[in-house]
TrEMBL record:
InterPro entries: RNA_pol_sigma-70-like (IPR039425), RNA_pol_sigma-70_dom (IPR014284), RNA_pol_sigma-E_actinobac (IPR014325), RNA_pol_sigma70_r2 (IPR007627), RNA_pol_sigma70_r4_t2 (IPR013249), RNA_pol_sigma_r2 (IPR013325), RNA_pol_sigma_r3/r4-like (IPR013324), WH-like_DNA-bd_sf (IPR036388). Keywords: DNA-binding, Sigma factor, Transcription, Transcription regulation. Residues 109-157 form the RNA polymerase sigma factor 70 region 4 type domain. This is SigE family RNA polymerase sigma factor. Residues 15-81 form the RNA polymerase sigma-70 region domain. Pfam families: Sigma70_r2, Sigma70_r4_2. Belongs to the sigma-70 factor family. ECF subfamily. It comes from Flexivirga alba.
Amino acid sequence: MTRARGTDDEFEQFVDREYDRLRRIAISLTGNQHDAEDLLQDSLAKLLVHWGKVAATASPTRYAHRTIVNTFLSGKRRRWSTEVVSTEMVDRRVESADPTAQFVQRHDLLAEVLLLPPSQRVVIVLRYLEDLSVPEVAGILGKREGAVRATCHRALDNLRRKPDNLQIATGRAAHAGLVTGEPG
């Protein structure tokens, strides 16, 4: 199949413009840079194959988000039997206003997010780390807003069950309910 050069140029411009944001989503979903690069590469390859259709949509960025999420979730379904869950507990108690301690707390909270089931992790990443509204997340996931809110509520509930997470305030997520108990 021969591709038009203009289409390739448009795709390259899109990737140049959105790469950092897409990479941040991939890292937030996978928990490490190497798996994130693989996820992003697979997703970008899918986007390139269908770029003519993607570019014609109202929001190619939203389409890219959905592609990353779907690729992540389909990969989790395939690999679920090879993952090993650790029973090791990490001591996360840090009682300080020190910026280093706050960094450690945020890092620990992100580690807890990585332990959420994939569907809950996706909602938390898009809603709080990417700062998307409930309707935007629903559109990306192809779900109803109520389903997104319910998934968000379950995810936040799971995070709140960890006693140390009640004290962790990380940007917008704190204002949206990680600390107050209100789902965003």
